[in-house]
# Entry
Amino acid sequence: MIIGAHVVLYSVNAADDRAFLRDALGFAHVDAGDGWLILRLPPSEVAVHPAETNCSPEFYLLTDDVDAEIARLAARGAACTPVQDAGWGRLTQLTLPSGAQLGLYEPRHARP
# Structure
């Protein structure tokens, strides 16, 4: 029985990105030792998109209200790109302390 999924994000500044996910996003966590945080994600979903070649996976966070979430994150010092209407949802990019970006979107599609 599969009990969940483990997502790995690679970072040039792992300690600050872990702290950001813990503090700015408020993800519950455990310390696996030496400050190595394992963070709880909210309920998740996976989609398989067609492609000409195999690609790297993408990681997006979901929100019910992207504008409210951007305001909440800004109050915690997080920066987001301008919101884009992608048809299937409203999308922004959340910038981590390392400079890497995570997608954040308000879906318009049905949720499982």
